[in-house]
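Folded chain entry —
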Amino acid sequence: MYSMLGQIARWEVMIFVGGMAGIITMRLLTGRINCRYLLWGRRRDGSRYFSPERAQLLVFTIAIAMQYLLTAAHTTSGEMPKVPAAALEVLGASNAIYLGGKGWMMLRNKRSSNRENN
């Protein structure tokens, strides 16, 4: 009896997650979710630049999320799987790179504006 309820709950979760993924994919493809300039930053003067920090953060976040979802889909114990320490380290390093790039741009912009004012 309990195993049948577990199977039903598992299918409900899979249908829900799959449905959400389908809705998000359709909205991305039809333009209802705006992804324009998703990987671009903006300088203080308003100009845009390609941000490799944002690109790597997005790639690592999606990769680790997919790894976790696949692990959760194959778990038979009924418990949420633990996030591996290596995944947390990679995500932390990825965020540090992103924030470091933002800080570097802010520092560089501040230095250039100070030179213009002097």
About this structure: Residues 85-117 form the longest helix (33 residues).
